[in-house]
């Protein structure tokens, strides 16, 4: 059995796509996942499944959630080992945690067919995509003129022509720590 993380796009955001975490856990269990848990309300699900069946479980969950959400959600699947390696790679080592920046990872549904020149910059949203590997993009968000921080998801999808879901770096590191503690505990 392999431990996986499902990052679900656009649920429980600004009052849209509301799904209870108990509903998500139950959907993954019915689809064949075991040892299912959720982390915060933004659609992060940890579950175990044989490596060869994980994508099938995700497809079954997407289909089931269509009736709850009114449209089929996008789910980006990674193993917990991939998430742990991502955190160990310290992609934001040059950016300390300050009030001046927010750090995000955009999880892509697939490797983009285009390889952009980095950094990708959105002046309007005060975003800078500083690094990319096959299916993750690392983004620095700074305050806009309004004082609010830009959110990278739409920008990344427009630039790379691929579905994505973004998570704050602190959420990603907490998921890696949770996965490690579940495995080692």
Topology:
Elements (H helix, E strand, L loop, with lengths): L1 E7 L12 H11 L2 E6 L4 E6 L4 H16 L5 E5 H9 L13 E7 L11 E3 L4 E6 L3 E6 L11 H8 L3 E5 H16 L1
Antiparallel strand pairs: 1-3, 1-4, 2-3, 5-8, 5-9, 6-7, 7-8
Helix pairs in contact: 1-2, 3-5
Question: Which structural traits does this protein have?
Answer:
185 residues, alpha+beta, Alpha-Beta Plaits, 2 domains, five-stranded antiparallel β-sheet, 9 strands
What does this structure look like?
The structure is a single chain. Helices cover 32% and strands 28% of the residues. The chain has 185 residues and is an alpha+beta fold. It has 2 domains: 2-73, 2-Layer Sandwich (Alpha-Beta Plaits); 90-167, no CATH class. The mean pLDDT is 92.
**Average pLDDT metric:** 92
Rg measurement, Å = 16 Å
| Lateral strand order in the biggest sheet | 6-7-8-5-9
- Helix/strand-derived class? alpha+beta
Helix content: 25-40%
Strand content: 25-35%
- Gross geometry: globular
Tell me the total number of β-strands: 9
Total discrete domains:
2
Question: Would you list the SSEs in sequence order as H and E?
Answer: EHEEHEHEEEEHEH
The major sheet is characterized as: 5 strands, antiparallel
End-to-end span in angstroms?
16 Å
Point out poorly predicted stretches: none
Number of helices: 5
